[in-house]
Amino acid sequence: MSIRHRQPYSQTALLLLNPHARQVNPDSLSRVVDQLRTLGLEIIQDFPQSPQDFTALIERYQDRVDLVIVGGGDGTLNAAIDGLVKTGLPLGILPLGTANDLARTLNLPLSLPEACQVIAQGHKQYIDLGWVNGKHFFNVASLGLSVNITRKLTREAKRRWGIFAYLITATKAILKASPFVAEIRFGNECKRVKTFQIAVGNGRYYGGGMKILHDATIDDQRLDLYSLEIKRWWQFFTVILAIRTGRHRPELGTRTLSGSEFEVSTSKPQTINTDGELTVSTPAHFRVIPKAIAVFAPQRPDSNLYTGAEFVMK
């Protein structure tokens, strides 16, 4: 009796790229598509004019594909969130941006060939999402200094200076920073603060490799908040290590809180930055949505959150 050799079940992926992403060019796109096909994926490509079209495209193709692959930076990935939540399709990430903070949080390789391999291996991790005033986010939502940095951080600067554009732009913004008054409500408590920045993180990394909190993970079912309550702008340089490493010290002027929900109101409406995009404004209600979507990520030997092995055999 002969044995029939079973072939891998072919998965179909919708490939969406930000045409303005820092690392996108015709040669890199062609190599990515060829490699994904070599690894056994069927690829459907669409060519949106803007990442703002991603959700509509994901919904349009949902019955024809098994997964969505998004190429770009954190803002590009954020543009796909609503489509992923609505359809339940898993996400493959090609880190083509400047900071790639979500990729860092997930321990994804930043080289495109290795990122393609991770997608093809098919290991899924279910991750939390943050939510503020109807807007989802992967990494962080913040108000204050970070909004000024986002406004000043041009596409040209990121293309020219790469990750150093964040440092250059942040230094300029710090020199002109002004504090604002806010109320932070959590549980039965309310704190009135005078702060330069409030950041609410879902993952670990944001802003080009900074940590929201040193032990934060994107599947811990909590949000981590810090408020930068220093007295003078020059004190930024005394807390820069804490901002970089996520090991905040209250005696230096940084308040930290963790929980599933926060409410933040301000004396004047403040714009909120979600994953590098200016979206909503205060008053703001933040909450965590546990295990909201599945992403393809390297398998952790100690993790029980991976539900997928390599693509199933048929």
Describe the structure.
There is one protein chain. The protein has helices at residues 26-38, 54-61, 74-87, 101-105, 112-121, 145-152, 155-161, 164-175, 236-245; strands at residues 11-17, 41-45, 67-72, 91-95, 124-132, 135-137, 140-144, 180-186, 189-195, 197-201, 205-206, 210-211, 223-228, 254-259, 261-266, 271-274, 277-281, 284-296. It has 314 residues and is α+β, with helices and mostly antiparallel strands. The strands form four sheets. It has a six-stranded antiparallel β-sheet with strand order 6-5-18-15-8-9. Strands 14-13-10-7-16-17 form a six-stranded antiparallel β-sheet, with helices on one face. Strand 3 (67-72), helix 3 and strand 4 (91-95) form a beta-alpha-beta unit. Helix 2 (54-61) packs parallel to helix 3 (74-87) and helix 6 crosses helix 8 (164-175). The protein is globular, with a radius of gyration of 20 Å.
Largest sheet, if any? 6 strands, antiparallel
Counted beta strands: 18
Alpha-carbon Rg, integer: 20 Å
How far apart are the first and last residues' alpha carbons, in Å?
A: 20 Å
Query: If you average the pLDDT, what whole number results?
Result: 85
| Widest sheet, order of strands | 6-5-18-15-8-9
- State which percent range the strand residues make up: 25-35%
Spatial shape: globular
Helix content: 25-40%
- Element-level helix/strand string: EHEHEHEHHEEEHHHEEEEEEHEEEEE
Low-confidence stretches: 1-8, 303-314
Structural class: alpha+beta
Q: Please work out how many helical segments DSSP would assign.
A: 9
